[in-house]
């Protein structure tokens, strides 16, 4: 299975491309914004597509024309304004969903936010609410698409070394989770069709990621 990793130059994306390239059932294609970011991925043996997520759907679809699955790990980041949140976390996500349709790619994995319900929007601090809104509607768009989707809702992300120990279910208590473990959750989701048409929250816990995925 060849996987287009959108947002590959982000922290989760880099972990994921490494994991994919180390797995004999998968191969990665890294979608990045700048050519100067390419060497990291080429050194891993991954294909590279230089595409601006704020560009056209057709450009994203061309990057997806030779893949079997798409993973959306892109994000505007905590230091950008509301405009980038809308352009990346909402419009960018929706364009990749539409690009998947254009390229006839059925498998799609979305990295969302921990809670994207209407209640979460109302309860969010004013500075964080636009991000939750963007994620809420991107998730809604994906649920309505005729794709084999999985939506992953991670807890508070950290840069701690992954421990391969998580709690994973439709609803879990708030907590932290290493980005490296989320990359592993994505990998196992791609390898297990039982995650299709499902979404779940993930925090650090006591189950191995493989066992947690299989329990869905």
UniProtKB/TrEMBL annotation:
<dbReference type="Pfam" id="PF13460">
    <property type="entry name" value="NAD_binding_10"/>
</dbReference>
<dbReference type="InterPro" id="IPR036291">
    <property type="entry name" value="NAD(P)-bd_dom_sf"/>
</dbReference>
<dbReference type="InterPro" id="IPR016040">
    <property type="entry name" value="NAD(P)-bd_dom"/>
</dbReference>
<protein>
    <submittedName>
        <fullName>SDR family oxidoreductase</fullName>
    </submittedName>
</protein>
<feature type="domain" description="NAD(P)-binding">
    <location>
        <begin position="7"/>
        <end position="192"/>
    </location>
</feature>
């Amino acid at each position: 299975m060849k996987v287009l990793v959108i947002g590959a130059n982000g922290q989760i994306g880099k972990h994921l491309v490494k994991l994919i390239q180390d797995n004999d059932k998968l191969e990665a294609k890294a979608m990045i914004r700048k050519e100067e970011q390419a060497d990291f991925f080429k050194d891993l043996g991954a294909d590279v597509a230089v595409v601006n997520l704020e560009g056209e759907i057709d450009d994203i679809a061309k990057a997806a024309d030779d893949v079997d699955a798409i993973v959306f790990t892109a994000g505007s980041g905590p230091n950008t304004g509301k405009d980038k949140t809308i352009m990346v976390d909402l419009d960018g996500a929706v364009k990749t969903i539409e690009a998947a349709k254009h390229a006839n790619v059925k498998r799609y994995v979305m990295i969302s936010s921990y809670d994207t319900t209407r209640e979460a929007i109302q309860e969010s601090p004013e500075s964080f609410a636009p991000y939750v809104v963007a994620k809420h509607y991107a998730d809604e768009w994906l649920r309505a698409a005729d794709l084999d989707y999985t939506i992953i809702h991670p807890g508070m992300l950290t840069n701690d070394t992954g421990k391969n120990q998580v709690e994973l279910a439709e609803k879990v208590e708030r907590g932290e989770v290493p980005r490296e473990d989320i990359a592993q959750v994505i990998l196992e989701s791609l390898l297990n069709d039982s995650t299709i048409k499902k979404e779940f929250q993930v925090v650090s816990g006591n189950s191995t990621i493989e066992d947690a995925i299989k329990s869905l």
